[in-house]
Amino acid sequence: MIRIAIDAMGGDFGADPIISGVIDALKETEFKAVLVGDSNVIKPLIPQSYLKNIEFLEASEVISMADGATDALKRKDSTIYKAIELLKNKEVDAVVSAGHSGATMSLATLRIGRLKNISRPAIATLMPNSKESATLVLDVGANVDCRSEHLFQFAIMGEAYAKEILGRKEPKVGLLSNGEEESKGNEVSKEAFKLVSRLDSFVGNAEGNQIFDGSIDVMVCDGFMGNILLKTSEGVADAIGKIIKKQIKKSPLAIAGSVLMRKVFKTLKKQVSYDEYGGAPLLGVNGCVIISHGKSNSKAIKNAIFQAIKFANSNINKVIEEELSHFAR
Asked: Could you tell me which residue, 49 or 268, shows the higher pLDDT?
């Protein structure tokens, strides 16, 4: 049975939504949850009937968003440190955390280690597109400054994720740039273009709009661009929703039409909401680590657990290592 360590107290809203998400996941599939945190806080939130699938690991500290990422290395009694140690010691198959993403990434990289031939792990996230599917974007925040070989490794990891987890047989990989022509981009992306061109899946430079039109499956970029892209798209989606609501309230005709449009709005909200995907996998570390949004609700945690189970049951890390070793020859 798959065992998942869950940082039970790391999110912005404490243990409640995290435990609710764990319970909701257990209602739909069987796994062993190892909840890391203060059991005095956690246990009262769990119905008796689910305790057979739950274990507890005591941790007295929580890394707050105000703490530095490297502080986590010294905080050995923190929830995320202890969760990562479980994965390092192979006592669990995956870790899910809605806590400090920088701390999670630092601990995973330094305590668990990287895959062979991976210089830097990357945070990958799914972004909705107009084909009612999703585009994988990486990196979205782990690496602000990248070299061309890092972007090449991201492309390998993204392609593997698209095949092994998303089930895309022939994924299309693009390199985020300011134009589709090979001559476009900065010096790093131009060098990366030459490297990534060795992949059969590479379709060339791609512009930001192609993430949302569904013309590519994997978009590769550095963490600086990726994080801005992610936060901007979240802001745009939120703004569009608010604008639509304001306009509907101003017009009687729009109010009448809104009844008919309610299903459309519901579908749109579902597509753009991060809780549908649950979290972002940290690709390139020697294990499965899912980083959830700090404001994750129970649905997001449930879906993050489902992501972790699917990842743990896959051969993605082996595929990444084999692909990289082929190009390292």
From this structure: 49
Contact 312, 155 (CB under 8 A): no
Please tell me the pTM assigned to this model: 0.89
Residue 232 pLDDT grade (very low, low, confident, very high; cuts 50, 70, 90) = confident
Q: How far apart are CA 80 and CA 95, in angstroms?
A: 9
| Alpha helix positions (H), 198-222 | 209-213
Q: Read off the DSSP letter of residue 10.
A: -
- CA 6 – CA 123 distance, rounded (Å): 18
pLDDT in tens, 95-137: 999 998 889 999 999 999 999 999 999 999 998 888 878 899 9
Q: In sequence order, what are the beta bridge partners of 204?
A: 174
Residue 220: exposed, middle, or buried by beta-carbon count in 10 A (0-12, 13-18, 19+)? Answer: buried
Report how far apart, in Å, the C-alpha atoms of 223 and of each of 61, 75, 141, 162, 164 are: 29, 26, 4, 19, 23
Name residues whose C-beta falls within 8 Å of residue 191's C-beta, 6 or more positions apart in sequence.
148
What is the residue-wise DSSP string for 107-142? HIIIII-BPTT-SS-EEEEEEE-TTSSEEEEE-SSS
**Distances from the Cα of 38 to the Cα of 59, 60, 123, 177, 216, angstroms:** 6, 6, 28, 46, 44
